[in-house]
Design goal:
This protein has about 230 residues and is α/β, with parallel strands linked by helices. The chain contains 8 helices and 11 strands.
């Protein structure tokens, strides 16, 4: 068995623990304390987040999409495979080191997607970015923290509370979609989405995209077209 090697560490703004990037052969892992936030071998649910979202806006010739959280680029790559040449995909990443890792040690994992002319990566907290504009996006995809219950920083709860969901709804164009990734189901979050006025589906997905393995949850919440 090849041992893990620590490649780098990074602090999370507003968080108490460090992120750790580890490598074992061609496999990468990003850890927070004892929790593995992501692994380069497990991309199924992050890819499903993009596919489910893009399927809702297929009729739009020049969609504008906001992705909260760069991670290992799985959601971004999957979104780029689904949207047309005229699309614009903005990725908000809070931790500068994650962007640096994407362009450095994990460049092979990203497969050049950061060089796609449709992509803009901004070093920013996605919550204020969402709140800064109205009718700006056809889809907002959130893979922030561990889901609606914050793990890396308490401030992330604000993205998923009623105020944050209201901001997301205002930031979406009519018929736009808010999709949220989570490591586990959350019935209270489902109720909040419906209270905020979204038509909501819960979609269980597998981390590895196949049968067996960890099960994650994706919410696909659609704003009405009026």
């Amino acid at each position: 068995m090849i041992p893990w090697t620590l490649i780098d560490t990074a602090s999370v703004p507003g968080g108490s623990d460090e992120l750790r990037l580890k490598q074992r052969g061609t496999e990468f892992s990003i850890m927070l304390g004892t929790n593995e936030l992501m692994n380069s071998r497990l991309s199924g649910s992050e890819e499903a987040l993009a596919r489910l979202s893009c399927n809702k806006i297929r009729d739009r010739p020049r969609p504008r999409i906001l992705i909260g959280g760069l991670g290992m680029g799985f959601t971004l790559r999957a979104a780029l495979a689904e949207v047309p040449e005229g699309a614009e995909v903005v990725v908000a990443e809070l931790v500068p080191a994650v962007i640096r890792w994407a362009k450095g040690p994990m460049a092979e994992v990203f497969r050049g997607c950061l060089d796609d002319p449709r992509v803009t990566v901004v070093e920013a907290d996605v919550g204020p970015l969402i709140a800064s504009k109205a009718d700006a996006y056809d889809a907002i995809l959130l893979d922030v923290d561990n889901g609606p219950e914050a793990l890396t920083r308490d401030e992330n709860d604000r993205i998923y509370d009623l105020g944050g969901l209201g901001a997301a709804k205002r930031a979406l164009r009519p018929g736009g979609v808010l999709s949220v990734w989570s490591s586990a189901p959350d019935s209270q979050f489902t109720r909040r989405l419906k209270t905020a006025g979204f038509t909501t589906d819960e979609v269980p997905t597998r981390a590895n995209g196949k049968r067996g393995g960890a099960r994650h949850m994706i919410w696909v919440a659609v704003k009405d077209k009026r």
